Predict the structure.
Amino acid sequence: MTRNQSSNNILMVEPTHFESNVQAIADNTFMNKPGEGLDIPTLGVKEFTEYCNAIKEKNVNVKLFQPKGDGIETPDCVFPNNWFSTHSAEEMSNAGGKNTLVLYPMCHPNRRLERRANIIEFLKNRYPADQLQIVDFTHYEEKGMFLEGTGSFVLDRVNKNAYICISQRSHKQLAQEWCDKMGYNLVAFESLDSNNKIVYHTNVIMAICTKIAVICLDSIATQEDREMVEKTLSKTHTIVNITKDQVNQFCGNVIEVQNGNGDKFFVCSESSFKAFTEQQKETIKNNCNGGFITRDIPTIQSVGGGGIRCMIAELF
């Protein structure tokens, strides 16, 4: 069975009531208070729409949800990759062999509202019921234990390694339980940002594409873990090692997507594209034959504290 690292089908959710999430700002050091007089909701939708259209122009299939007028205020709904993930039967060949939908326990109460019934029904209906298994971790919210999807995890889907930096939003015990259910090997470590604070989500410091892995090795807290992660990654990928300053420009919050022809694109924000060195860009281009898809999303990055990778939920 062939496993794919990236997908040609993705799901995106248009921002609803986009604004600074007061519940999340305490542990997301990438979030900033918005400037005076800015129309943050309108700017968020504009940046989102331009990026979504840019991805569609490369013939990547985008399933777009626009949760307008449902009365649910979800300032972070633009980041759907945190509350669910999907996994193909091929990926699950050593763990039941069924297409799999995973639902995750979210740290902050208003982020739990992002699990809208219509999106869940769409995800369930992608496969016949007898070919789908649902793995639901949401009950752990009652115990104060959290694991926020492919924000917490950066997955090597081909080699079945799940990388995670442990934080308030990424519980190690849950991560191990997830790996046991999903047939993955857990690669756990602690990561610190440029202010020496714990990194809340792994996908701000690393990303795994088909041939390359972007990672800030310097952010990993101990030398032992740093060497362990580097050794594991380098067995299967060319490493693009980024600095903590580049992490602050969202160079780690990137993703590879495919189109129907199998062309692979490196999706990153304008700030991260500018922050990559020329040598790093060359390495990326040599390993992603479709090149870059990049747009400027300053409001989403600054106010939302997340980047383009967070805006994309892969459908397998």
User: Anything to note?
Assistant: The chain has one domain: 9-314. The chain has a mean pLDDT of 93.
